Write the structure tokens for this entry.
Amino acid sequence: MSASKVNITHSTTYKQKYAWLKFRWFIYLLSFVHLVTMAIRFLIEKDFENSEDVTIRVYAKFKWKLITTWFNLLFFVYIPVCLYCDWRELKGNVTKHLKTVKRLRDFMFTSLVLPTTAFADILFWRLWHHDKDLIAPPAVDSMIHLWEHHCMHTISLLFVIFDFLFVRRKRPKNMAPGIITLTCFISLYIAVCVQSVLNEEYLYPVFKKFSYTKLSVLAIYTYISVLFYHTGQWVLVDLIHGQTVTQKKRVY
């Protein structure tokens, strides 16, 4: 291959990479605007506290203990980091500092953002179609519309899928740090749920309907599920991103 053809190829590759980076940065920005908008709507605009229905008023008291709140708080940290990394890369300012931030970004996504969001969103819709009274009292329908549920539990999952597909990652040599971080995070959340149940503060109706035995099974199911999403992602990473890297090595 002549030098001119090589230069043209690299120039085309760079332009494609730059275009994809701009597109990805725009999606991150759009996602963050959506996140802030929904936070304002649920935490400020919706007056759960002064509702006449006691089953709705509990949301004002327990909203910071809901798993949806927890993974959205992760997004409030994760998305700005993504915006920063891609902005620096678009400017061509790839330093050692940026590489460190990108490693932290990848660790946060693979260890916390993806497993917890996938678990919470998929379980939410499974329970919704089975018996939605298990996750929220019927009176909540007057305060939270179906499209708002999709904003909280569908768009977030689509964002995670987008990020997974459009950010190249590779399987870590040691998965123990990610598994430990995820296990500690979920253990903390389960501890919050246990403390609430013992105080007869039921974050979800299912906690009141289930016996302690069934709640124990639910806790075990939670651990198994999030660990499945964490370890399963690396199989897909090998299939999607690993194959791309192999092909490029063959071309060049």
About this structure: Residues 3-251 form one domain. The chain has one domain: 3-251. The two ends are 10 Å apart (CA to CA).
